[in-house]
Prior knowledge:
The chain has 18 helices and seven strands. By secondary structure, the chain is α+β, with helices and mostly antiparallel strands. It has a five-stranded mixed sheet, with helices on one face. A two-stranded antiparallel sheet has the order 6-7. The protein is globular and about 60 Å long. The two termini are 18 Å apart.
Amino acid sequence: MNESTTVGAPWALLVECARSNPGIDRLNEMLRGLVDWPVLLELAEKHSVFGLATSRFRDCGEGAVPAEIFEKLRDRYRAQTLFTLRLTAEMLRLFDRFTASGVEALVTKGPALSARCYGDPGLRQYGDLDLLVRDKDILRSTELMMSLGYEPRVPLTAIQARKIPGEYVFRQLSTKLLVEFHTELTFRYHPRPLPVEKLFERQVRVKIDAHDVPALSLEDELILISIHGAKHFWEQLSYIADVAAFVSRQDLDWARVRSSAEEVGGERMLNVGLRLAADVLGAPLPENVAALVRSDRSAGFLVGQILRWLPAAGPVPPGIFARAMFRMRMRGGVFSGPAYLFRLSFSPTEEDWIEGPRNKRHWFLDALGRPFRLARKYGKDGKS
């Protein structure tokens, strides 16, 4: 799958599946051609759109897909659905316990985003549950998770030492389910500090399996998934499909979307996400929004870069210099771009705690080692 010609036809078919309103006649026509099914299934897995592809092929009717291929799709989709049901049930249990303990949390991405984008908590692929809590509550949250049978990747001693990881990951020992907690301090890829109190004030309820779950507002969720896509260089089709489905299905207050983006300095990241959704998957944008997005020439340049590596789904990501330039352009500004890159380069996570998370070494020493680790990780061949 190193040559673009190898993934060309399967990629085009996968893109059609990822559209918010795919043309079933168009899909059937494409399926009547010669389809390289092993390549397509591999791409669907790497791009995390297996559920979407299965749903679209099912809509095409019996016989559109070879029986043995559809059986593989169906088995994979069934496993994903069962996992989603387990994770959703666990999410509801966690919210009950946290509410009883007086700790506020909001769900982001995961089943809530899947319900908002696709009307089905199980249609979007994800491997864990993401929750947002206030930094002041993370110690109490960790204690609660431990009492519920979870093992923290970040121990209490590291939290007490005020070390800030990339996220607070918890694994349930009995089922191996993963839950990630985020605070205003772990959202490093937001150019400006996350206004966590405003996010809680603007929270809404998302109905999942007849339960109302506290979640980010529509506008705040759109900004978050746009910044999340930028963090990962938009190297998976699923990131773009989420944005496309979100803007297609939800009644957004676009003035609030823009103000929320400005609040965290994510205007260009939003523009890139919206342009990818429109250009790759045909997502409809209001005329004034589309005009504003297309007026951002730097966003257009970044979209061109992304489209060059997107079909390969990560095996050939940008090297360290290209990554650095991408980060600066994504932030924008003569001074703000380099400042953003500098902050990301010297903001240590648990991977930079060289002597282990229990040590009392000052964060400044961890920060000094971070650029060298990043150079080792991305410098040789650009592969993570």
